[in-house]
Design a protein that fits this description.
By secondary structure, the protein is of the alpha/beta class. The chain is built from 8 helices and 11 strands. The protein is globular, with a radius of gyration of 17 Å. The protein starts with a strand and ends with a strand. It binds fructose -6-phosphate (F6R). Fructose -6-phosphate binds next to loops.
């Protein structure tokens, strides 16, 4: 896997934002897969700032978000649509019709997931998928389990995932939905390139397992070891276990392969 380590989350976000904008310049019809959560917040700030300076044009770009809660109206501040609107979409010139979410309000959730998969195919597949990682190794809402679902599907959220999201619901766990829709592991693995971002000490253990451990559905992110173009972007805290074990050497965002 290719690993880049940055001194902090802001330098990581700034470098990734510059990389995304450079790709957009080369490939205006870029298809981006996007994540929500705490980790990509500095990335979206950096992308918004670059756009504000006239550095980017999203007019022909397409996005697909990894996941969405079941039963939340898009206007609900806890929905991932609302998160993306606030953090990125209202700051850049993406065409609303090229923004795609799994539909947590669809009368038939399974049919909605199938429509989402068709839209990914129609867009020509995802060029660059941005991922975060749960402390338990989940990607999207693909939680550790004996068996993982390949394609977009309905998920019963674990208590840990609901707690991790409570911050977006004024800290009220009871308001966090119990179910979500998520891209499947195959949907993610079909992306032509993947960048998984992790920042903070609480991700250090799972990053070590993801990068050096066995490929197992018990650590869904470990499946990324099988992808041909995946980079793991870390701050020093998230890389601390890899560093302690002498498994990575790079600094300042230089590429380290292992
Ligand atoms: C969110 C998502 C999740 C998060 C993960 C990490 O769209 O897919 O897998 O990336 O839960 O969340 P944070 O960044 O809040 O630690």
């Amino acid at each position: 896997m290719k690993i880049r380590i940055f001194s902090n989350e802001d330098s990581l976000a700034a470098a990734l934002a510059r990389g995304i904008v450079a790709r957009l310049q080369k490939q205006p019809r870029l298809v981006l897969g996007l994540a929500t959560g705490r980790t990509p917040l500095p990335l979206y700030r950096a992308l918004a700032a670059l756009h504000d300076r006239g550095a980017s044009d999203y007019a022909q770009a397409t996005t697909f978000n990894l996941d969405e809660f079941v039963g939340l109206d898009p206007s609900h501040p806890g929905s991932y649509r609302a998160y993306m609107r606030e953090q990125l979409f209202k700051h850049v010139n993406l065409a609303p019709r090229r923004i795609h979410f799994l539909d947590g309000l669809a009368p038939d959730l399974g049919a909605g997931c199938a429509r989402f998969e068709s839209s990914v195919l129609k867009a020509g597949g995802i060029d660059l998928q941005i991922l975060g990682i749960g402390a338990n190794g989940h990607i999207g809402f693909n939680e550790p389990a004996p068996v993982l679902s390949p394609w977009s599907h309905r998920v019963k959220l674990t208590l840990a995932s609901r707690k991790a999201n409570a911050g977006f619901f004024d800290g009220k766990l009871r308001d966090v939905p119990r179910e979500a829709l998520s891209m499947g592991v195959a949907t993610i693995m079909h992306a032509r390139s993947i960048v998984l971002m992790a920042t903070g000490r609480e991700k250090a253990d799972v990053i070590e397992k993801t990068v050096t451990g066995p490929v197992t559905t018990r650590v869904p992110a470990s499946l990324l070891q099988l992808h041909h173009d995946v980079e793991i972007w870390l701050d020093e805290s998230a890389a601390s276990k890899l560093r302690r074990e002498g498994l990575v050497a790079g600094r300042g965002g230089r590429l380290h392969e292992r």
